[in-house]
């Protein structure tokens, strides 16, 4: 019997910049054939090593605003003085194909998505403390000192929104945190309402 028979589901990774969301989701996508990553659109400039179409679709603000008017985004938000948006067409296409989709979204965007999609699974990834967060932001060498200070300042407000989401992971040990993330996804896929096809098939044998 097939175990993966439900329409695709949406998983969101939320948390402060530097909490480790990108590392966790890349590892999960590499190991899970039923998960795909939704590449967001952004108006910010690419960081060193980032690839257009893989990490983000990098566009200017005029194009971003045009896409808003076209209804191209399932959700969008302005964060750290830049805009980010989730492609409606890509999400719908993947879910209809039965694939699960993993999003890396900010707090504001995640709240908007939860209002639109009741079954979305929202996973908040938190750093163990602000000192660890500062060290990670500085170590990755991608942001100026001013940007790092702005991200740290915003992190407190993001942490205050934790209770609006479904799961909390504390990324103080990457391997343990990753195991917990895999457990969340695996358990969610076993929920009965996601396996109605399998339930009907089982009943046919009684």
Structural class: alpha/beta
What fraction of the residues are assigned to beta strands by DSSP? 15-25%
Low-confidence region ranges: 1-5
Principal-axis shape: globular
Give the H and E element order: EHEEEHEEHEHEHHEHH
Question: How would you write the strand order of the largest sheet?
Answer: 2-7-1-8-9
CATH class term of one domain = Alpha Beta
CATH architecture of one domain: 3-Layer(aba) Sandwich
Describe the structure.
- The chain has a five-stranded parallel sheet with strand order 2-7-1-8-9, with helices on both faces. The protein has a four-stranded mixed sheet with strand order 4-3-6-5.
- It is built from eight helices and nine strands.
- It has a domain at 10-38 and 100-203: P-loop containing nucleotide triphosphate hydrolases (Rossmann fold, 3-Layer(aba) Sandwich).
- It starts with 9 loop residues before the first strand and ends with a helix.
- Residues 1-5 have low confidence and may be disordered.
- It is an alpha/beta fold and 206 residues long.
- β5 (73-79) and β6 (82-87) form a beta hairpin.
- 44% of the residues lie in helices and 19% in strands.
- It comes from Acanthopleuribacter pedis.
- It catalyses: GMP + ATP = GDP + ADP.
- Its EC number is 2.7.4.8.
- GO terms for molecular function: ATP binding; GMP kinase activity.
- ATP binds at residues 15-22.
């Amino acid at each position: 019997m097939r175990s993966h028979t439900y329409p695709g589901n949406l998983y969101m990774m939320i948390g402060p910049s530097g909490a480790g969301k990108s590392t966790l989701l890349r590892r999960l996508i590499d190991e899970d054939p039923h998960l795909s990553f939704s590449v967001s659109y952004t108006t910010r400039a690419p960081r060193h090593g980032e690839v257009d179409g893989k990490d983000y679709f990098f566009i200017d603000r005029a194009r971003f605003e045009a896409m808003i008017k076209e209804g191209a985004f399932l959700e969008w938000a302005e964060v750290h003085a830049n805009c980010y948006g989730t492609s409606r067409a890509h999400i719908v296409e993947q879910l209809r194909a039965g694939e699960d989709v993993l999003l890396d979204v900010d707090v504001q965007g995640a709240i908007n998505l939860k209002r639109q999609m009741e079954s979305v699974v929202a996973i908040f990834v938190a750093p163990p403390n602000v000192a660890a967060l500062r060290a990670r932001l500085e170590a990755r060498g991608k942001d100026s000192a001013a940007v790092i200070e702005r991200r740290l300042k915003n992190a407190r407000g993001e942490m205050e929104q934790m209770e609006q989401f479904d799961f909390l992971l504390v990324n103080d040990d990457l391997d343990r945190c990753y195991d917990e993330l895999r457990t969340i996804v695996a358990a969610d896929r076993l929920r009965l309402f996601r396996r109605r096809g399998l339930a009907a098939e089982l009943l046919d044998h009684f």
